[in-house]
Amino acid sequence: MQSAEANYKGVWGNRIGFGQRPALLVIDFLKGYTIEDSPLYAPGVVDAVARTPHLIEAARRTGIPVIHTRILYLAENCADGGIWVQKAPVMKAMVEGNELAEFCDEVAPAAGELVIVKQYASAFFGTSLAPHLHAQGIDTVVLAGCSTSGCIRASAVDAVQHGFRTIVVGDCVGDRHPDPHNANLFDIDSKYGDVVSREEAITAFGGASCP
């Protein structure tokens, strides 16, 4: 049987590249994924959080907008999570006052940075993110955060469907197991956007036209 790379070659995997005006979207880097006794704990996310401050600092230094997302349920018994929290009741930890729902300190939003509150996997679903980006003239969405197989993948698919060039920084996303992490990076890079290194993203930030 052919390898996945050989099977996809010449069919999938075209490069889309950066546009002129990127924004960095830091998705759900919450303590629930990095505290060891949490049911959501994901070693790959711990590694990704450690690698991401340099990326965020580069975006801030070059004037690239940095936008953060968090999952937060406000209704009684997390009813605003709908069927998703029935499928994944572990997500009910994402409520105000629970430490697991707080941002990781190393990558927390700076004063004035936009925070998008969401109830589902995609940063675009049911939020004002897409119109905000379009209004700012953003043409490229650069994704860091977690988890690769969940909120990163969902946000990447929705980003391209909203007309944005979609870039995933492979060094700065993570999951609880390497198999879904690697499989989803392969699929995103093949069909929806480009997976790049942190260094490639930082270099692109330096050549961008800031909104």
Short key terms for the protein model shown above:
alpha/beta; 6 strands; Rossmann fold; 211 residues
General description of the model:
- It comes from Sinorhizobium meliloti CCNWSX0020.
- GO terms for molecular function: hydrolase activity.
- It holds the Pfam family Isochorismatase.
- Residues 23-200 form the Isochorismatase-like domain.
- By secondary structure, the chain is of the alpha/beta class.
- It is 35% helix and 17% strand.
- It has a 6-stranded parallel β-sheet with strand order 3-2-1-4-5-6, with helices on both faces.
In short:
With 211 residues, this protein is of the alpha/beta class.
User: What is the annotated CATH architecture of the domain at 18-32 and 42-69 and 104-114 and 121-207?
Assistant: 3-Layer(aba) Sandwich
**Which geometry do the CA atoms define?**
globular
Tell me the β content.
15-25%
Q: Structural class, from secondary structure content?
A: alpha/beta
Unreliable residue stretches: none
State the helicity in percent bands.
25-40%
* Pattern of helices and strands: HEHEHEHEHEHEH
Task: Look up the CATH topology of the domain at 18-32 and 42-69 and 104-114 and 121-207.
Answer: Rossmann fold
Question: How many strand elements?
Answer: 6
Task: Give a topology summary.
Elements: H1 4-8, E1 22-27, H2 43-61, E2 66-71, H3 82-87, E3 115-118, H4 129-135, E4 140-146, H5 148-161, E5 165-174, H6 178-191, E6 194-196, H7 198-206
